[in-house]
Amino acid sequence: MVSKIWLPVLSSFLPLLASARNLTATAFPLNTVEIPVTADPVLYFTIQNDTNTTQETATRRVSYFVYDGQAIIDGDVRFGTEEEILQAAVDPLTKRSASTKHSKRALSQSTPNRWPGGRIEYRYESELTRASRHLNFEVAIKRWEDTLPFLQFVEVSPPADVPWAPSGPRTIRAIEGTVSWSDIGGAGGEIRLGDHGPDSIGVYTHEIGHTLGLYHEHKRPDRDDYVEVVCENMWQPSDCATGSGWAAQFSKEQPEWVNWAGKYDVNSVMHYDPWAFSNGLGPVLKSKTVTELCSRCRESPTKTDAQRVCEIYWEDCHSVCGDGILSSQYEECDDGNNLNGDSCSSDCKKGPGSLCGNGVVDTGEECDHGPSGSWTCDVTCKEIVYPYCGDGKVNQISEECDDGPSGSATCTPLCKTITTPPPTNGTCFDFCDPLPPVPDRNMCDITTSCTTIDWPGARSYGEHYCACRAGYRANGVDVADMKQQYRMPWPGQVRVFVKPGLVCDTPCTEHWCAEVSEKAECF
């Protein structure tokens, strides 16, 4: 990554604003090539509209710069050495056929190699590197560990000056100037950490996101629905029509390359800052949904970032600190944020002297109904102010109806009027609740997620159901049994929804999980 400086043709290379020194667009001459792409096999199979299950050869246009012998694509992702990317490059005039053998390296866009058990081993290349980068890098590590308690970052000592290795610990190397990058996923590889001044912690947090397996948020296929790319404000050379030059940093990925399911997050720590690659004439990224993109909001993982890492490490992830769901085995509290200074700290531990959750109203508490709270007392020991949805009283400002916490045939549990009759092929599954004020409302198995129906036009808009990961269905359940599971449309993909508690780790055998019976909508 490269950071923003306030001079003509000098700008930010980062998803965060940073104080850059001595960096110009011309300092990084670009080469544009096309390289092979390996799609995610599950997503490729489910997204194709035909029955041919053989992955066709695909290529992706990338622009890269070379720093210290390494070929860097997408601003801060290490492809390999310059020799490796040139060996992998495909002549655009003589594209490879699907039958052509190709033993050179391809860009893998599938689910990256995971660190076993969520244990990330790392080592500093030298004591000098440790002395210069240790403090900020360890703070960035703690931001991820606080949000996802299952992650374990373990420093391997003593430090060793070793070359890049395809396995084993990740090597932390210092680099001059405001440039940082990382390999995607584990294990082995390297993270290069530059000196980004006061923004170093946020930059390092972003690079750790790559190490865990996350891709750039602003390259999602649905990016244009939320963010506009202003090409005239971009570093030159840039050709947005062909995705060449610096414009390659903003090219959208294909749906089948990565699991992009879920809501677009403009505040993701993996999203570029609006001034990234700006020539100083204005921001490169402009929001279509909010007044202005925040320039200094991307310094810690968001709940969305955490949930995506959780989906990659679904076998190991047991809780997300800050999602408002108390996992009593791993958290002492969860007040729905990652802030310190309140009754629940950023790592979901009770604050000093806090007795919230012991069932006794102590000094400073409005109520105390135990660690899970209740309908009238939340998990921070604050009274829930009336009126609220589910109290049986219609609040004319925010509610269309209110038939109690379970809703009714004419009113949803979210206090929205049901204006159409239920479908003839059965009713929807029980609701789950990602932020339950009542214990045991989020009943989804760890292999599923409590998912919001949030695409425009859906009749069940705003409701929450247990959904399998993209490309998976329920274990041991008849694919035609709509009382246990069914398919529903999902933007860019299809998801299988299941009865709360069911396990989903059986890969679908047909594209779009077509073997599972489809229900077009609920209500």
Task: Give the key terms.
523 residues, alpha+beta, Collagenase (Catalytic Domain), 5-stranded mixed sheet, 5 helices, hydrolase
Structure overview:
The chain is of the alpha+beta class. It folds into 2 domains: 317 residues, Collagenase (Catalytic Domain) (3-Layer(aba) Sandwich), CATH 3.40.390.10; 104 residues, no CATH class. Helices cover 11% and strands 16% of the residues. The chain has 5 helices and 20 strands. A 5-stranded mixed β-sheet has the order 4-3-2-1-5, with helices on one face. Strands 7-6-8-10-9 form a 5-stranded mixed β-sheet, with helices on one face. A 4-stranded antiparallel β-sheet has the order 15-16-19-18, covered by helices on one side. Helix 3 crosses helix 4. It is globular and about 65 Å long. It starts with 30 loop residues before the first strand and ends in a 16-residue tail after the last strand. The N terminus is likely disordered.
CATH topology of the largest domain: Collagenase (Catalytic Domain)
Q: What is the domain tally?
A: 2
Compute the separation of the termini in Å: 47 Å
Order of helices and strands: EHEEEHEEHEEEEHEEEEHEEEEEE
Low-confidence stretches: 1-26, 92-110, 421-426
Instruction: Please work out how many helical segments DSSP would assign.
Output: 5
Task: Report the helical percentage.
Answer: 10-25%
Chain-averaged pLDDT: 76
| Shape call | globular
* Largest beta sheet: strand ordering: 4-3-2-1-5
- The proportion of residues in beta strands is 15-25%
Counting helices, strands and paired strands, the structural category is: alpha+beta
CATH domain class name of the largest domain: Alpha Beta
Q: Please describe the biggest sheet, giving its number of strands, its sense, and whether it closes into a barrel.
A: 5 strands, mixed
CATH architecture of the largest domain: 3-Layer(aba) Sandwich
Radius of gyration: 24 Å
Number of strands: 20
| CATH homologous superfamily grouping of the largest domain | Collagenase (Catalytic Domain)
Active site: 207
EC number: 3.4.24.-
Domain Peptidase M12A: 105-318
Binding site for Zn(2+): 206, 210, 216
